[in-house]
Automatic annotation (TrEMBL):
The name this protein goes by in its record: ADP-ribosylation factor-like protein 6
GO process terms (BP): cell projection organization
Mode of membrane association: Peripheral membrane protein
Residues annotated as binding Mg(2+): S31, T50
Coiled-coil zones: none
Subcellular location, record wording: Cell projection, Cilium membrane; Cytoplasm, Cytoskeleton, Cilium axoneme; Cytoplasm, Cytoskeleton, Cilium basal body
Family: Belongs to the small GTPase superfamily. Arf family.
Amino acid sequence: MGILDSLIEWLGLRRRVVNVLVVGLDNSGKSSLLNFLRPREAQTDDRTPTVGFNVEHFSYNGLSFSAFDMSGQSRYRTLWGNYYRSTNGIIFVIDSSDKGRILIAREELQQLLSHPDISKRNIPILFFANKMDIRDALSDVGVSSALTLENIINKSWYICSSNALTGEGVVTGIEWLSSAIKTSFEQGKN
Ligand SMILES: Nc1nc2c(ncn2[C@@H]2O[C@H](COP(=O)(O)OP(=O)(O)OP(=O)(O)O)[C@@H](O)[C@H]2O)c(=O)[nH]1
Ligand SMILES: [Mg+2]
């Protein structure tokens, strides 16, 4: 980076571009959460399952995010690993009301954590315990326990309940993720 580039960055005149991978089982609410982060006029009511992946762009806290919204359908989950190396942060979305598939979500998380492009890096992971509005949904503590998140010791992680339809919890999560990514950049760990 040249002196002019460094100065522009130091003055905060250019937003730093970060890649974020958004994963989780199908129907967990990934696309709905990202839809909420779009400008109001660009938000849609379209809730068709994602095929392959889509890329969404949004800015927050001085960072310019490219969010890779992956399909959670089992036949597309093998695609997730192609993006691990280039990602600066992960958003893992869980349908807190889908108790029948929480163990499958845990297996997918374990595979992600043990992947060579993830396992050694201190890459921040934000968990959304989504669909908090559904009666009998697990709390964020319940989801954390079911996914055994306490075993993640070499990464910054955070879990918060969310409702992708109203946006409740979404900004809290993105606030944490943007701060965690900035910290990891400062520490040269990303
Ligand atoms: N009640 C409730 N429904 C939600 C919430 N978030 C998403 N949904 C609904 O869940 C369904 C699936 O949402 P999507 O955002 O398409 O899920 P996805 O994770 O992107 O699914 P794939 O693209 O198939 O991987 C839709 O009908 C949404 O309206 C939520 O917080 N509460
Ligand atoms: Mg989707």
